[in-house]
UniProtKB/TrEMBL annotation:
SUPFAM superfamilies: CinA-like (SSF142433). It comes from the Bacteria. The lineage of its organism: Bacteria, Pseudomonadati, Pseudomonadota, Betaproteobacteria, Burkholderiales. Residues 7-158 form the CinA C-terminal domain. InterPro entries: CinA-like_C, CinA_C. NCBIfam families: PncC_domain (TIGR00199). This is CinA family protein. Pfam families: CinA.
Length: 160
């Protein structure tokens, strides 16, 4: 875990605490990396509820209630699914805000229109959901690290 990620997770924790918000995560390509980053921070129990690691499509459907039809229509790496994952994390936890990551970290897995490094993000709070799609460069570890950092930065923007 880099110092930059720990600093970013600290800022997230301070922002959540100041707003009395509790976070849940729904992660696919990061495999729990966001949860790992936030739990590096002492006292995160006051603002972090839980993390869902839903790597398979079946787990997205079973644990987060992402409709199988949505995955079939748009693919698991899509803004639509990322948004549904964040909403599912909210619905299946006691959190106030949720974030999600789903992507192709590589080195294989690219499909037409979705190269390696494609990641979709979701942030949800109440009735508001925001999604984003980015393409990161680098090897698998670099894509995952950039994804964790962007998910946390996006959360800061989303709650401010």
């Amino acid at each position: 875990m880099t110092n930059d990620l720990i600093d970013l997770a600290t800022k997230v924790g301070m922002a959540l605490q100041a707003r009395r918000l509790v976070l849940a995560t729904a992660e696919s390509c990061t495999g729990g990396g966001v949860s790992q980053a936030v739990t590096e921070i002492a006292g995160s129990t006051g603002w972090f509820e839980c993390g869902f690691v839903t790597y398979s499509n079946a787990s997205k459907t079973e644990l987060l209630e992402v409709p199988a039809a949505l995955i079939a229509q748009f693919g698991s790496v899509s803004e639509e699914v990322a948004g549904a994952m964040a909403e599912g994390a909210l619905a299946n936890s006691n959190a106030d805000v949720a974030l999600s990551t789903t992507g192709i970290a590589g080195p294989t897995g690219a499909v037409p229109g979705k190269p390696v490094g494609t990641v979709c993000f979701g942030w949800a709070r109440g009735d508001t959901t925001y999604t984003e799609r980015l393409v990161f460069q680098g090897d698998r570890a670099a894509v995952r690290e950039q994804t964790v950092a962007h998910a946390l930065r996006g959360l800061l923007r989303f709650i401010e």
